Amino acid sequence: MSIIRQTCTPASLFSGDRFSVTYRIYGSEQEARAKAGDICIEQTVEFPADEVPEGIIRDQVFGRIELFERFDRESFKAIISYAIEITAGELTQFLNVVFGNSSIKPGIRVEHLDLQESLLKPFKGPRFGREGIRKLLKIPKRPLLCTAIKPMGLSCRELADLAYQFALGGMDMIKDDHGLTDQCCSPFEERVKRCADAVNRASRKTGRPSLYIANITAPHSEVMKRARLAKNAGAEGLMVAPGIIGFDLMRELADDDSIALPIMTHPALQGSFVTSRNGISHGVIFGQLARLAGADATIFPNFGGRFSFSREECMDIAEETSIPMGQLKPIFPAPGGGMSLDRVPEMLETYGQDLIFLIGGGLFKHGPDLVENCRYFRQMIEKI
Amino acid sequence: MSIIRQTCTPASLFSGDRFSVTYRIYGSEQEARAKAGDICIEQTVEFPADEVPEGIIRDQVFGRIELFERFDRESFKAIISYAIEITAGELTQFLNVVFGNSSIKPGIRVEHLDLQESLLKPFKGPRFGREGIRKLLKIPKRPLLCTAIKPMGLSCRELADLAYQFALGGMDMIKDDHGLTDQCCSPFEERVKRCADAVNRASRKTGRPSLYIANITAPHSEVMKRARLAKNAGAEGLMVAPGIIGFDLMRELADDDSIALPIMTHPALQGSFVTSRNGISHGVIFGQLARLAGADATIFPNFGGRFSFSREECMDIAEETSIPMGQLKPIFPAPGGGMSLDRVPEMLETYGQDLIFLIGGGLFKHGPDLVENCRYFRQMIEKI
User: Fold this and answer.
1) ipTM
2) Is the CB of residue B267 less than 8 Å away from at least one CB of chain A?
3) Which of B120, B148, B180 finishes a domain?
4) Is there a single domain that holds both residue A20 and residue A140?
5) Main-chain phi, psi angles of B265, to 5 degrees
6) Closest chain A residue by Cα to residue B282
7) A210 with A83, same domain?
8) Probe site for chain B from A56, A104, A221, A372 (most B CB atoms < 10 A)
9) What is the pTM of this model?
10) CA–CA min distance B196, chain A (Å)
11) How far apart are CA A235 and CA A331, in angstroms?
């Protein structure tokens, strides 16, 4: 007899609602089947299955293989469902159930999340989404143009001067580089104030909205403070790297009615999830999880740039930014990294019109006048 | 002429102090050299290097290759230094500088951090460390024994009953399973109160201290609240998964004088950093970063168990838990996962006496009486 006898937890605590996770599992069919079985235990009770008696723990708490089939020559697809109750309505515990311990096992990759209404209920998701951002910018249809203020090492005045030129040249969104936090050369409060002022000044001059997006990736207790400082200084968007601050802190930021600014995510420190056979698919981490945690736009490296994402991987992200997910709004994919003019047609074909072109260094390389370079890109985008 | 002219940032803002990161870079010598050069830019200014004029940004802000040599047949070792000022004294920005964008590039792995006093100054690190935990338990020398309360699905009473038996059997540390958060079958507050009571009751009976360690991995705004609830309920330690809540929130928890309990880390969701050629070494993520962020003990899967770490990888962790890092105390390695009796001699040889044996399912499999099983393991450890 096992030491654990039947639990007195009433079955009525479980609604029967289950969400499911599609895993891609590498190995032979036999290995993959065994791994799928392991996942059902590892991600839930993490306890010897043969020590768990018949009853509610087996019936409700264990993960359940809903489908197992060949994925491709070297891997299998397993759809595993979990009782929504085991996530406790917490994004943190949801992440743990989806991939916590399995992240430590080679050859297991989360490919897709299938989240029904009752699981999604506690999550507000993106406050703005694609439509909300388009409304702020008064741009109903064309792709948006975004650039980054850098390099680190410039003073606040110099960074603000760049921001001004970007806005004057017609960039729709102007974000801090993700490496700008609160360094001595450009302290957060002064930088954000000067940059917001500069963008708003230029925007009045052009008569067209430009959003200044402040990077508030910061120590835990600073994030909300910096969000408020940025808002008060006139920033019209916020950027965070959820790989650094955690997805749940971004969710809290998105949910806060006193802040209520669009949020962009930066992929820093998330790459290791997508660069091997163990991990989380591009679409899930940069699409579904970003949305679930309240991002309005998701930055990721474009294919063919100096990073290594393939066109298919980028299409996967684009798809998951708008796939139906209950009440959660579709968000903007914001591919960046090594973007240049000649890439535009191919990018439109890949992403469609609902995208944010993120262009950085390219704006500096096009010609000697930054404002003119921005205008050039802007006109090009307007012709689309 | 480049658009960026010399910055007016005064050189006096930079102390000249630099910390360094050892990267392992895969590829041919030529590729690896190019990648090392890229890292210097990617992790700092993320800007076309040829657009940055001579002067302070190049001299101070750019990463600098301090050493480049062959690592093994397929990879190279590059030690790259960064000005401490670019981290702004923030753990979040430190992580970003070490590996933010490079995490998105294949074949780059952080192998070791070399952090001098001036960088470490803002970090308090572990409050207890090895010595502090030994003092709480009054065990000067032998390895410690830890187990986990599970499976999820049991009621609070049932979990507390297990906790009682563990403590009666002489387990030094009794932690929540990392999947127990605030589920309907065992809500946080009730569970922690019952478990802490049970462990303290048993501990009075045996006359030997046992620490109950509450899992407070939770949504961002709940973590500190649960830490306080746990402390008030009588818990004597806390567990978090920094892969889920973020390293910096753990740091804040460790630094909070009103909480002041030992902290264990759980590796959930961190596995993808160590399972491929892209990532962070076992020693850095489970050793150095855990310490920097204030953990007193670091849980990771033992070699030869149901996870995939090798003995060498585990030795790397053990080494980094005690390698000199300024004022930061050495912490306990806590290898777990599939531990059994016959593994003990090999584990002692690998880790030495300063370790926490984490045993879970094995305690349930040894015999039909849980208290007796615990006593058996305890006696065995006392003989060491």
Assistant:
1) 0.97
2) yes
3) B120
4) no
5) -105, 145
6) A104
7) no
8) A104
9) 0.97
10) 20
11) 20
